Amino acid sequence: MFETADDQVKRRKAGDNTVGQEANHRDRWLVSYADLMTLLFALFAVLYAAADRDRAQAVAAALSQQIAGAPAAALGPPGGSGVLPGSDSVTEARAAVEWALAQNELLRARARVLTTGRGFVVSLAEAGFFAAGEAAVRDDARGLIDTLADSLSGARTQIRVEGHTDATPIATARYPSNWELSSARASKVLAQLVARGIAPARLSVAGYASERPVADNNTLEGRALNRRVDLVILNTEQ
C-alpha cells in the first residue's frame, strides 16, 4: 500500500526508526551511479589521451597533479618540479615556453612562437635583441634569453639556433658578409643558452644569411621580420 508523507511523519512520532532507514536504503543507488560516472569519465579520458602520445603525457601529468591536490594556480610552468618529471616532448617544451611568454610582457613583445614541420620556433627579432650590424646580445635583452633558457632547461629536446639576416649586403671589418653576421649572432645566443645551463649536447648552430626569408625583403616590415635568430625546438623523432 502506498504510504504518504503524513503517514511517515506519524510513524516517526510513534518512534518508528525504520522510516529513515528505508529512505537511506532507497538512495543507495546514487553512490553506485556516481562511481559508474567517475569510471566512465576516466575511461574516456584515457581513450582520448591514448590517441596522441604527447597528449597522453600531458593528461597523465595533469591527473597526477589533481590527485596530489595541487591547486592550478600553484603548479607553476609545465614540465617543472611537479609530481611527474618534465617530459622531453615538443608539446610540453612549447607549453613551458608559452607559459614564460605569458608571464613576461617584454619577452612576449619581442619574440614570436611559430609552428613548423620540424617542431616549433621561437623567433627573436633583431630589433629586440641586437644592435644593427652587431652580433652581441643587447644588455636589456640578455635576461629575456635567460628566461627562455630556463623554460627549456627541463626538456631533452634538441634545439638548433639559426641566424638570419635580410638581403641588404653588409661589409665590415668584423663581418665581411651576412653569412658571418648571421652565424655570429646565432653563436652568441647559443653561448648564453649554455651558460644558463642548457646541455651543449642538445644544441647546434647555423647561419643562413638572407637565404631563408620569412617575409618580403622589398619592404621595411619584411626586412625587419627577416633579421632574426630562431630557436628551433626540433621534433623528438628527429
Whole-angstrom Rg: 29 Å
Q: How do the strands of the widest beta sheet line up side by side?
A: 1-2-5-3-4
Q: Share of helix among residues?
A: 40-55%
Report the average pLDDT across residues: 80
> How can the largest sheet be summarized?
5 strands, mixed
Report the structural category: alpha+beta
Portion in strands: 5-15%
Low-confidence stretches: 70-75, 80-88
**Series of secondary-structure elements, N-terminal to C-terminal:** HHHHHHEEHHEHEHE
Gross morphology: elongated
N→C terminal distance:
75 Å
Beta-strand segment tally: 5
Number of H- or I-type helical stretches: 10
SSE arrangement:
Blueprint: H1 5-13, H2 18-26, H3 29-50, H4 53-68, H5 90-103, H6 105-110, E1 111-116, E2 119-125, H7 126-129, H8 139-152, E3 159-164, H9 178-195, E4 203-207, H10 220-226, E5 228-234
Parallel strand pairs: 3-4
Antiparallel strand pairs: 1-2, 2-5, 3-5
Summarize the structure in words:
It is built from 10 helices and 5 strands. The chain is elongated, with a radius of gyration of 29 Å. The protein has a 5-stranded mixed β-sheet. It has helices at residues 5-13, 18-26, 29-50, 53-68, 90-103, 105-110, 126-129, 139-152, 178-195, 220-226; strands at 111-116, 119-125, 159-164, 203-207, 228-234. Strand 1 (111-116) and strand 2 (119-125) form a beta hairpin.
